[in-house]
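Researcher: I'd like a structural prediction for the single chain below. Treat it as a standalone chain; there are no partners to consider.
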Amino acid sequence: MAAVRNAVAFGLWGDEAARVVGGALLGLALFLSAIGCDAGPVRFEPNWVFARNQGLAETPTDFEAPDVRQKLADIEQAVTMLFGTPDEPTLPACENLELGSLLDLALLRMAAGPHDQMPSGQTRGLYRAYCIRCHGVSGSGTGAMARDLNPYPRDFRRGIFKYKNTPDTNPPKDGDLLHVLERGVPGTAMRSFQELTGEQRRALVQYVRYLSVRGLFERELIAVTAVELAEEDRLLDVRLAEIDPETFAEQRAMLTSIAEGVMQPWFEAEKVTMDVPPPPPGYDAAEGIARGRELYFTTLTNCAKCHGATALGDGQLEEYDEWSKELDPTNEQALRDYLQLGALPPRHAQPRNLYEAIYRGGDRPEDLFLKIKHGFAGTTMPSVASQLNDTDAWYLVAYARFLPSDPIGRSASHQ
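Model: Treating it as a single chain, here is the predicted structure.
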C-alpha cells in the first residue's frame, strides 16, 4: 500500500503508475514469498530502500532475482538470529560488551509484542499501542499515519536523533529519550506520554534503543553484503551449523563483531557530557540582545542563511536533511525506485520561524544554548562549537528569546 500512496503522491498516473505499483507489489511479493512470509505473526519489514541505496539491487525489479532474494533472506535471518522478532526480542551474546547496562530484556519485552496483559499482570505491547502507527513495526518512520504528518516520524534505524544532549551524531542518553517521551515535541505529532508510568516510559526508551541498534545492524549487514562479500559467499548459511561447524562459527563471530561495533557508541554516549556554562551577567539585557542580533547576520553563524533576514524561517528552502538525502531526491529515477520500495516522498528542510517560539528540543535557556552551540544532528542546523565562544552563544540565546516579543517581527510572522 505504501507503493500505491507514494505513486499518487509523486504524481504518477496511468501506465506509469501501474508500472511502479505493479512492479513494486510483484517484486516485494516474490521476495516475501521467498523468505517464507505469510499472514502470521507481525514481522520486521526488511530495509529495501537501503538495499537499493547500497546497490544490492539496482532496480526494484531486481529484488525478484534469486540471488538477491537469497542475500536478503540471509540478512533477515542474521538479524533475527541476534535480535529476535517483534513479539520476542532477543539480544546478541557479546563477549566484549555487558549488554545489561544498555538494554534491559525485561523492559524490552514489556514494550514488545501485542498489546495485552502478561502473566504477571503487567501491560505489554506498549510500542504497538502507542508508537507503531507513526513509527512502523521496525522503527522506519513509515507507519500507517506517517505520510500525512509533517514532519515525518523519526526513522530510528538510522541511529540519528535530533533532541539530545550529546554532540554531533553521538547516540542519545536514556535521559534524552525520556525527556522526549515526557515532554513530547512541540509543533509535531509527537505528543507527551506523561500518562504512562515511569516504568512504562523506560520500557519504551529501551525499545526505541533496541530498534535503533537493530536497524543499524541491519544496515551494516546490507552494506557488507553489497560491497564486501564475494558474489559466491553467503553472509549466513544456517545449514553449515551441522555440515561445517567451523565456517558457521566464523560467520557467527563476524556477525557478533558487527553488532558490537554498532552498539559501542551507545555505551560511550552515557559518558559524554555537554556542560552548559553560566551566562554572562546581563546577557539578556538590551546590549546582549543587540550583540546576538549582530552575530545572527554574520558568516560566523550563518543563522540568516536558513532562518532568513527576518527570522521567519524563509531563508534557504531547497536543502534536505540526512534522512531525505539518502533518497537522492534530485535523481528522478532513483527517487522513483525508493518511492516504489515504500519510502515517503522527501520534503525540503524547513528552518524554524523564530518568532513562533516553538522550541522542539526544549525551551529553557540552557536548551537553546546547547542547540545553538552544537546544532541538530541530521539536519541543516550545524554545530558552531569550533567558531563560537560561549559568551557569544549566550547572546544568540538572548536574541532568539527576544524575537517572539518583538512586535515588528510578530506582525510580519502573522501576515
